[in-house]
Amino acid sequence: MAELMKQAFSCQRQLLVTASSSQKPSDSVLTSLLAPMSKVIQEVQSFREKNRSSPLFNHLSAVSESVPALGWVAMAPKPGPYVKEMQDAAMFYTNRVLKDYKEKDKMHVEWVSTYVSIWTELQAYIKQHHTTGLSWSKTVSDILVCSGPVASGGAPSGGAPAPPPPGPPPPPMNLDKSSSGDSGATSHNALFASINKGADITKGLKHVSDDQKTHKNPTLKVQGGPLPSGPKPFAARPTAAASPARTLPPVLELDGKKWKVENQEGAHGLVISDTELKQVVYAFKCNNSTLQVKGKINSIILDNCKKLGLVFDDVVGIVEVINCKDVKVQVMGKVPTISINKTDGCHVYLNKDSLSCEIISAKSSEMNVLVPNKDGEYTEIPVPEQFKTVWDGSKLVTTATEIAG
């Protein structure tokens, strides 16, 4: 994954060098410029999915969740906040790393600090040079598309050399060396700042008159008039309205050790019964459906599901609920951990054998845990969403708070 990240940053560096010496290209050319970096981002995320059994899975997940931050080059007019959002998405997993290794191996703690600082310094660079979006030069020049990792001379392997930018381009990013402490922050800031050395960035911004602004000229929204067109957001995390997604066929199959349950719509009565301990279940984009998993299994993941009901017997690892909305999870046997991340609306039904289950939540809302009573009925208990943090003189102390009424 480190090699993939090195390639992603190399492609981004080449794009920034190109922007510093070229006018903003057409949408089709811009798409080709973004394609190599988008491809590497997808490879990073795929690498994480293929290594779920890795003891460093939390490390891989932290990188996978935050790597879309490199798509800031297509996120106008607020690229900085977009990077911050992606950085925050990694915190769920970096906190896990800190929890697991804080008392065991300081190297992992240093890794978290160094990795998070990359995105912090990138935000500072964007704020200084590309506040409202990627700035392009007014100079007409050939466009160079990244085709691979940047070589020592600063050009991608197999491509033609880039035309001289206005001022010296930055040296290739050396990701082999860690950047801890003040020296690391200084070197990163110097790298980002040198990309725009010698150029007046504000001259590359395009003036938009009042008659081209939809909030001052509402008729543009109705007529579909000449709205300013900008780079399309990365497919990994679209933020703008996109064309209707094509309907994919439903899937319920065993692929190696993974049960794949995908694109189920209104499918009540889905059952996975022939299970083994080494297998995992991955449910993706299943809406208004119910899924029952029988037997003892390694782990279960619900990803991008809405109004899905999950009933399972025993899980020896973890049940993860990610990017979901209005889901219900019922434990019939035992499970050590249930993780709820970036989810709105999650009801967890425990039984008497699973009351010791740990429930870990982050960036989620409307969570409730239902525990059984002696009479067989359930008591519903909300999971706190509001917290109070105070300084006790030596450390921060955080406690859950309840809103009266």
Describe the secondary structure blueprint for this structure.
Layout: H1 2-19, H2 27-49, H3 57-66, H4 79-101, H5 106-129, H6 181-195, H7 219-223, E1 251-255, E2 258-262, E3 270-272, E4 280-284, E5 287-297, E6 299-303, E7 306-315, E8 318-322, E9 325-331, E10 337-341, E11 344-349, E12 358-362, E13 365-372, E14 378-382, E15 387-391, E16 396-400
Parallel strand pairs: 2-4, 3-5, 4-6, 5-7, 6-8, 7-9, 8-10, 9-11, 10-12, 11-13
Antiparallel strand pairs: 1-2, 13-14, 15-16
Helix pairs in contact: 1-2, 2-3, 3-4, 4-5, 5-6
The CATH class label of the domain at 251-400 is Mainly Beta
Characterize the biggest β-sheet: 7 strands, mixed
Catalogue the unreliable spans: 149-171, 175-181, 197-202, 224-239
Q: What is the SS-derived class? A: alpha/beta
Please state roughly what percent of the residues sit in beta strands, choosing from under 5%, 5-15%, 15-25%, 25-35%, 35-45% or over 45%: 15-25%
Instruction: Kindly state the percentage of residues in helix.
Output: 25-40%
Mean pLDDT: 80
Shape: globular
Order of helices and strands: HHHHHHHEEEEEEEEEEEEEEEE
- CATH architecture assignment name of the domain at 251-400: 3 Solenoid
Walk across the major sheet and give the strand order: 1-2-4-6-8-10-12
CATH topology of the domain at 251-400: Pectate Lyase C-like
Organism: Sinocyclocheilus rhinocerous
Biased composition (Pro residues): 161-173
GO molecular function, one term: adenylate cyclase binding
Domain C-CAP/cofactor C-like: 249-383
